[in-house]
Amino acid sequence: MNWKRSVRVLWLCNFMVSAGMTMVIPFLSLFLWQMGVTEHHALSIWTGLVFSVTFLSAAVMAPIWGVFADKYGQRANLIRAGIGMGLITGCMAFAASPMALLVLRFLVGFFSGFITVSFSYLARVVPRDHSGEALGTLQTGSIAGNIIGPLIGGALSDWFGFRPVFLVTGLCILLTLLPVIFWLEKDPVVPQTKENKASFKEVFRHRPLIVLFIATFLVQIAVLGVNSMMTIFVQSLVGHSRNLAFLSGLASSITGIATIIGAPYLGKLGDRIGQEKTLPILLVLSGLFALPQVWTDHLYELYVWRFLQGLVVGGVWPAIQALINAQSPRRIQGRVFGVTASSRFLGNLAGPTAAGAIAGFASISAIFALSGLLLIATGALVGSTTHDRAWREDMKEKIAAWAHRLHIRH
């Protein structure tokens, strides 16, 4: 199997899906206002619900789609996700009320997970000594889509209105089916037998996997929580500026650009020296770069810290995926990546909620303290687990060597 071609195909697909799904973000609240939700408090509630309800249904369904992947493969899972997400997103153009939009956003979560599934597909087909490089490169596709998508969506909504953008988004997602069907090879599936039957009990028997699930959840809280409050924080620095949307968007884009630069190189570094060694260091460094943002008083200083953090955090997700792939037996990989996706979606849901609560009870800058401390604690957790595992393996080797010597003597 030509894994390098698979990386290129999925990079293009991830770019199109990410760009399509983020096209609607700039005008989501405006679309609800156009539907008649004009009271400020009600608009805030509806916007939060419509944005986050997708993550809730996606978290519920991700393990189920993991079972599907163990039976039919992740390529079939990609096709399933593309069809469901594309058709339902296109239907949002015809939503006549906020409730109809909320229901459609909830339904699209049932079929979502294209990007997470593409990571798990690639982890299956790429040689393990190149997994960090491949997954790091793949991540740049979704990050690039996240950067360019809101720009395209904002421009299209200004020219043609809000509803046509949903049709464009659905079309972008459906178009990814063409390269997946015609250029992507089918990934191998382990036959399920009575003696070799996969189950979720086996997934949760592996302590390293549980630690990586927790790490996925905490990292998403740390990253998404800050991103959700970035506009409000930038406003606290510059006041009611005319180009507030641009300045806050630039703060997020700078992090994304740095991630595109750093992810492939950090993935290669992890392949060379071991992902279990690089992941704790990357998590701690990400946290250390987040903490100074608590005391940032100038916008350009914020940009510098966001860029430095983006360089490091770009290697975190590929390292987690590579370690999960290395730790999971082949017959339960679909279930493992399903639980991973569920952890990620739950983190996406909890992050903005936690950040909003902290900003309300303390201060807006306190969200950077939450992010930094969470990342450092996650790095310590992962580091202690990998250290314990390495120590146990070393002791097993020594005991085996001693037993061999005794056997030769006697």
What does the model show?
The chain is mainly alpha-helical and 410 residues long. 82% of the residues lie in helices and 0% in strands. It has helices spanning 3-22, 28-35, 40-72, 74-91, 98-111, 114-125, 131-160, 163-175, 177-183, 200-203, 207-228, 230-238, 244-273, 275-290, 299-313, 316-327, 333-361, 366-409. The radius of gyration is 22 Å and the shape is globular. The mean pLDDT is 85.
Defining key terms:
410 residues, mainly alpha
Give a brief outline of the structure:
With 410 residues, this protein is mainly alpha-helical. It has helices spanning 3-22, 28-35, 40-72, 74-91, 98-111, 114-125, 131-160, 163-175, 177-183, 200-203, 207-228, 230-238, 244-273, 275-290, 299-313, 316-327, 333-361, 366-409.
Strand tally, please? 0
Name the overall outline: globular
Please report the distance between the alpha carbons of the first and last residues.
Answer: 50 Å
Please count the helical segments.
18
Low-pLDDT parts are none
**Arithmetic mean of pLDDT:** 85
